[in-house]
Design a protein that fits this description.
With 677 residues, this protein is an alpha+beta fold. Helix content is 52%, strand content 16%. Helix 4 crosses helix 8. It is elongated, with a radius of gyration of 34 Å.
């Protein structure tokens, strides 16, 4: 019931806004509809003063009819734009409820806190946020760890863990701390926050035209000028043929000839496309980013968290020569018992499932060896000097060789088998002896292979980046169905991959969430940053995913393509539409003076006046009939550009010719029956 009421209110507000948009200052931004509005004003004058622009032979009622038809043509075009903006404003109103004047605990120099309004906070201020309190503005956690409820902006009910110093240290104003406390360094001034940007984006009235939209507007303007010149040449031709073309008829003829259908829907299509992205919980910094997504040729995707679930879990313990499975399992357990990562916990859980345990007293007082990018291993050093390590194959090899130990002959074959199966091998050693390999397995997300196949069908190449070794990378790439992969990738490798594709004239998209992803996100034509990521990543990207779902990039590209397809489809329909109107009006106007035009008089309309009125009425009502397509977007199907062109020409081109022929003829018959002409 509430949704229906909101839709009703939105429609009423759109009608009101349609009248407000009649302001010439607003209309001049749409040259096609501005010409129609000028024609509306002229016919209004003719309705009261038929001879205002020269002697007229038509009845006053004809001028009045033309005026109302033109008036509703402009009004319907404004309504299409207003209803699209209304959806954006409804989203903005919802966000404004989230954005509130929150009380903030500003940290003073002496360490104490002072309560101030969130509107007083400035970039660089530090605030304390405790359990149950609202985070007053966007910022970076500099101390503490807390669960944060981001449902107000993401719609996701599950809290997320945020902590200082990691890739998940940025927080958004309007979200709530549900456990512990954090100290937040404010990163924006008032009016510049994430929510402020989002509110500004979804309010359609503030939307800037995209490059493609500007280009199409320019084309429509040129076509309008061409038809204006054509119309001016018709006047002396008509006079020469002794045909009287009064002002109202000339205006009606111009409106029917110029591309009013796409002119009336163009802005609505763009606004609706932006709204679809926002409704999908993605904040696009500009309409250009959305359109660029529709033209993407290459996608650069991280493996972990994007193509795979990212939580590598222990699947098996594989002993090397002269070691039993139980000994290998116990060694893996010892190396992981103090490892708090998901991988470490999965090793402990799998060992316990195999009824292998280790007495806590044996590792009491042990020194914990944390994993680092340099050593690429972790583990424990017990109080008696026993060194327990697990890590990458090459790292443990070097470690054992440095201690004078021997590397088992079957280690290489066992780790290669794991890698070929798409897993990650971790080698376990105690002192100078290798005991076995932990088989860590990451799972490809279901449905991705089919989606990648769809993108391949439309010419979009997918490249997977991973830190895994080439064998593991090749297996995952094959299972996921990506076109290429980059193994053992470093941050600079992503940038090189993007530059390489761009050097070939291709548009590139990628996702990322860490500070090390920021350069690549900035280099990409479409950079989608995760909302859970760092401030640096979000500032470098031109899109932010509120749900922090890396696979969202696939859907964003689909939305961008749908926007372009919708605009192209309705432009095709509009031009084809005009062709039908030419066949309706031109023969009807000149058939008496040129009987040879009878061949083109396919519709056999009743009279020149009925032909003009029928074409004008159809021209007016087709705009609101196409509004649903402009709002929802044309149906998106993965196909090549050539197939898409053929489909558009068949569906919207041929349909754009046939529908007006039928529609204009039906309207003509109705006008005759009711005695209007």
């Amino acid at each position: 019931m509430g949704a229906k009421q909101n839709s009703h209110k939105m429609a009423i507000q759109a009608i009101v806004d349609s009248f407000k948009k009649l302001n010439p200052v607003n209309m001049v931004r749409n040259p096609v509809m501005f010409i129609v509005e000028i024609g509306t004003v002229v016919t209004l004058i003719l309705a009261f003063f038929p001879n205002a622009f020269g002697e007229s032979t038509v009845a006053r009622g004809y001028n009045i009819a033309v005026f109302f038809i033109l008036f509703f043509t402009v009004l319907f075009a404004n309504f299409a734009e207003a209803i699209a903006e209304g959806r954006g404003k409804a989203q903005a109103d919802s966000l404004k409820k989230t954005k509130q004047d929150t009380v903030a605990k500003l940290v003073q120099k002496d360490g104490t806190t002072k309560e101030v309004s969130s509107t007083q906070l400035r970039k660089g201020d530090v605030v304390r946020v405790d359990t149950g309190e609202i985070i007053p503005s966007d910022g970076e956690i500099i101390e503490g760890l807390a669960s944060v409820d981001e449902s107000a902006i993401t719609g996701e009910s599950a809290p997320v863990i945020k902590e200082a110093g990691g890739d998940f240290s940025s927080v958004t104003g309007g979200t709530r701390v549900v456990s512990d406390y954090i100290l937040v360094k404010i990163t924006t001034d008032p009016g510049e926050s994430f929510l402020d940007q989002m509110i500004s984006l979804v309010e359609g009235a503030s939307r800037q035209k995209t490059p493609n939209e500007i280009a199409l507007t320019s084309l429509l303007t040129v076509l309008t000028l061409i038809f204006l010149i054509v119309l001016m040449t018709l006047v002396p031709i008509a006079n020469f043929m002794d045909i009287q073309l009064d002002a109202a008829t000339l205006i009606a003829l111009l409106v029917c000839l110029i591309p009013t259908t796409i002119g009336g829907l163009l802005s609505a299509i763009g606004i609706a496309g932006m709204n679809r992205v926002t409704k999908f919980n993605v904040l696009a910094m500009s309409g250009k980013a959305v359109e660029a997504a529709g033209d993407i040729d290459t996608m650069i995707l991280d493996k972990t968290g994007t193509i795979t679930f990212g939580n590598r879990m222990a699947a098996a313990f594989i002993p090397v020569e002269e070691v039993t499975e139980e000994e290998a399992t116990l060694a893996a357990l010892k190396a992981s018992v103090k490892d708090g990562t998901p991988e470490g916990r999965s090793v402990v859980e799998l060992a316990n499932l195999k009824d292998v345990y280790w007495d806590e007293g044996e590792y009491e007082g042990a020194t914990i060896i944390e994993f680092t990018a340099d050593t690429r291993m972790s583990g424990l050093t017990l109080t008696d000097g026993t060194e327990i390590r697990k890590g990458a194959v090459d790292a443990i090899r070097k470690y054992i060789e440095a201690k004078g130990g021997n590397v088992p002959k079957d280690l290489g074959s066992k780790t290669d088998e794991i890698a070929k199966a798409g897993g990650t091998p971790l080698v376990v050693a105690i002192n100078n002896r290798i005991y076995g390999v932990i088989y860590l397995k990451d799972t490809v997300k279901p449905g991705l292979k089919e989606r990648f196949a769809q993108f391949r069908a439309i010419g979009v190449k997918t490249i997977m980046c991973t830190g895994d070794n080439p064998l593991t990378a090749a297996t995952i790439a094959s299972e996921a169905g990506v076109d290429e992969f980059i193994a053992e990738a470093k941050p600079e490798d992503k940038i090189e991959a993007i530059k390489k594709e761009q050097a070939q004239g291709k548009l590139v998209a990628m996702t990322g969430d860490g500070t090390n992803d920021a350069p690549a996100l900035a280099q990409a034509d479409v950079g989608l940053a995760m909302n859970s990521g760092t401030i640096a990543a979000k500032e470098a990207a031109n899109m932010i995913d509120l749900d922090s779902d890396p696979t969202k990039l696939l859907s964003v590209i689909e939305i961008g393509k749908q926007l372009l397809i919708t605009r192209g489809s309705l432009t095709t329909f509009s031009i084809a539409n005009d062709i039908a109107k030419y066949f309706a009006i031109i023969p009807a106007l000149f058939i008496l003076a040129m009987p040879q035009l009878e061949t083109l008089n396919i519709m056999q309309l009743y009279s020149p006046k009925s032909a003009i009125l029928s074409a004008l009425i159809f021209n007016a009502i087709i705009i609101p009939l196409l509004i649903p397509i402009a709002m929802k977007g044309a149906k998106y199907r993965a196909m090549t550009a050539n197939k898409l062109l053929r489909r558009n020409l068949l569906l919207y081109g041929l349909g754009g010719v046939i529908i007006p022929f039928v529609g204009i003829k039906v309207i003509d018959l109705i006008l005759v029956v009711i005695g209007v002409v």
